[in-house]
């Protein structure tokens, strides 16, 4: 099992747009084979910083999502709203 955490920092004027965009897309993301969990976190002290936390059955499943046309479209639209370069971590669940 893989946990994936992605930190994203948005331009302040894009915060609500991103929140709505994520809500529109999260059901499709959760519908990808191997995705067992997905949630969005927002930093308490820095509201422009968000994290996605997802759980995948395997790295293979995560990569199927990451290389999909849906992800490419989602990421292209999301990164247009960034204030800083995102960071991502994949960790194995013991």
Overview of the molecule:
The protein is an alpha+beta fold and 94 residues long. It has one domain (2-92): Alpha-Beta Plaits. The protein is 37% helix and 32% strand. The protein has a four-stranded antiparallel beta sheet with strand order 2-3-1-4. A hairpin with a 6-residue loop joins strand 2 (35-42) and strand 3. The radius of gyration is 13 Å and the shape is globular. The mean pLDDT is 97.
Question: Can you give keywords for this protein?
Answer:
32% strand; alpha+beta; 94 residues; 4 strands
Write the CATH fold name: Alpha-Beta Plaits
Mean pLDDT rating = 97
Instruction: Note the overall shape.
Output: globular
Identify low-pLDDT runs.
none
- How are strands sequenced across the largest beta sheet? 2-3-1-4
Helix tally? 3
- What Rg is obtained from the alpha carbons, in whole angstroms? 13 Å
Largest sheet descriptor: 4 strands, antiparallel
Percent range of helical residues:
25-40%
Give the name of the CATH architecture: 2-Layer Sandwich
